[in-house]
Write a structure and sequence with these properties.
The structure is a single chain. The protein is an all-alpha fold. The chain has two domains: about 400 residues, MFS general substrate transporter like domains (Growth Hormone, Chain: A, Up-down Bundle); about 50 residues. The protein is built from 19 helices and no strands. α1 runs antiparallel to α5 and α13 packs parallel to α15. The radius of gyration is 21 Å and the shape is globular.
Length: about 500
């Protein structure tokens, strides 16, 4: 067990400033995502955007984060974490300014992609900076706890802040808030964040990166645009084929590399594979809920952006309250109880919404929001704990990064799939209104909850644990990470 060595006062103060700077980066990325969701109807009205345009407004950002997050992390290890962190802050801040000035939907989506590229350099790199700034395990655990608390606060504040800004100054103002915070973080990073690099950085893997971008981009494009062009059209079939080919080629190519971008060996571990699937599923639920619920509250129930933001506060509050409880449950009882409970709560919440109508009682909606928020709050800690448990310490960061990428993939799929279902149903001749058209989407989210429950059981059996041990044995012998000591990865998109 490592000895607790308190930091000297001067070092502690400097480390605290480093933590504050990193939390600022998380704050603007998390606030941005939830605020944008609240603003979607206003964006659609002013820019005459169809549902697919609103999907791309969200997915353009999250697609860039998912596709380039691991590249940003490995680049930071190689050329300097502060340098990449500052580049991410600068790009995100400039992208926010550009979004606020976007003259059309196409330009808005392009600037959102630029924002996403900046965000891909922030949260994963910031977590590495925090780890380097707090060498003592206890100090590091407290620092990461504060980092995680920022997620809950951002999720709770995002809808309200977004609603206030949209109601008072229009949807463009939701991007203004990022500019002063981003500039302040840039200055503070230059003053207080020390430069650091990995002693043995991973080699670049450009082919693996191209395959990841090709797979994700073609898949998301096909899902979103298929609802308009028809899923049987030549272009959409070609895109699905391209995504499948890239998905097959990626593990084949990566097996031959000594330092692959995504090591296929990890997926021979049932706990790791389960945690990846659970991460994708959980964020399909979150992003799908935020997207559908925002359109429902404003376009069907006639709520203002501020009212819609206030109505989602119970969901965010449930997440903020359940997140620390999940960490304690995972540490004391393992990942099974919080994963099983999370899946069941998500399933019940989504099932409640499968009969959604334009006159569904507010009490029913709020109950579903609270249950979903608690379920989502319970799911994050056990996902990360399961991903890194039993892994050699040198591989724990990589395995957590892959799972974090899975969260971003889920963000993409939730908006793409559920938005396309609603679009296809409402555009059909004699199709239903938005509330009824969303019913299949809520059934999908309910199924997702049951999938998480099943994963919670399947990944914690003796057989599953044995597969993780066999994967760990393939790497050089060293200290492995236990579920209790695992560092929780933080979502930065919905986010975050």
């Amino acid at each position: 067990m490592p000895t607790h060595t308190p930091l000297p006062d001067d070092t502690r103060r400097r480390a605290g400033l480093v933590l504050a700077v990193c939390c600022l980066s998380l704050l603007i990325t998390a606030l941005d995502t939830t605020a944008v969701n609240v603003a979607l109807p206003a964006v659609g009205h002013e820019l005459h955007a169809p549902v697919s345009g609103l999907q791309w407004t969200v997915d353009g950002y999250t697609l860039a984060v998912a596709a380039f997050m691991m590249l940003a992390g490995s680049t930071a290890d190689r050329i300097g974490r502060r340098r990449v962190f500052q580049a991410g802050l600068a790009l995100f801040t400039v992208g926010s300014l550009a979004c606020s000035l976007a003259p059309s939907l196409g330009w808005l989506i392009a600037f959102r992609v630029a924002q996403g590229l900046g965000a891909s350099m922030l949260n994963p790199v910031a977590l590495s900076i925090i780890t380097h700034a707090f060498p003592d395990p206890r100090e590091r655990a407290r620092a990461i706890g504060l980092w995680g608390t920022t997620v809950g606060l951002s999720l709770a504040a995002g809808p309200v802040v977004g609603g206030l800004l949209v109601a008072s100054a229009g949807w463009r103002s939701i991007f203004w808030i990022n500019i002063p915070i981003g500039m302040a973080a840039l200055v503070l990073a230059a003053l207080f964040v020390p430069e650091s690099r990995a002693t043995a950085p991973r080699r670049p893997d450009p082919v693996g990166q191209i395959l990841v971008v090709t797979m994700l981009t073609s898949l998301i494009f096909a899902i979103i645009e298929g609802s308009h062009q028809g899923y049987g059209s030549t272009l959409i079939i070609a895109l699905f084929t391209l995504a499948a080919a890239a998905a097959v080629a990626l593990p084949v190519y990566e097996r031959r590399r000594q330092q692959p971008l995504v090591d296929p060996v990890f997926f021979r571990s049932i706990p790791f594979t389960g945690s990846f699937v659970a991460a994708v599923t959980a964020f399909v639920v979150l992003s799908g809920f935020l997207f559908l619920n925002t359109l429902y509250l404003q376009d069907v129930r006639g709520c203002s952006a501020l009212q819609a933001g206030l109505l989602t506060v119970p969901m965010a509050a449930g997440t903020a309250l359940a997140s620390p409880l999940s960490g304690r449950l995972t540490a004391t009882h393992g990942p099974r109880p919080p994963l099983v409970a999370a899946g069941l709560l998500i399933a019940v919440a989504a099932l409640t919404l499968t009969t959604l109508t334009p006159t569904t009682p507010w009490a029913t909606l709020l109950a579903a929001y609270v249950l979903l928020g608690i379920g989502f709050g319970l799911v994050n800690a056990p996902i990360t704990s399961t991903a890194v448990a039993g892994m050699p310490r040198a591989q724990a960061g990589v395995s957590a990064a892959i799972t974090t990428t899975g969260r971003q993939i889920g963000n993409n799929l939730g908006v793409a799939v559920l938005g396309s279902i609603v679009t296809a149903r409402t555009r059909a001749p004699g199709g239903p209104g938005l509330a009824t058209a969303s019913h299949p989407g809520w059934w999908i989210l309910a199924t997702g909850g049951l999938v998480i429950t099943a994963i919670g059981i399947a990944t914690t059996t003796a057989r599953a644990t044995a597969t993780a041990g066999r994967v760990a044995a393939r790497f050089p012998a060293e200290t492995t990470v236990t579920a209790v000591s695992a560092v929780p990865a933080v979502h930065g998109s919905a986010q975050t």
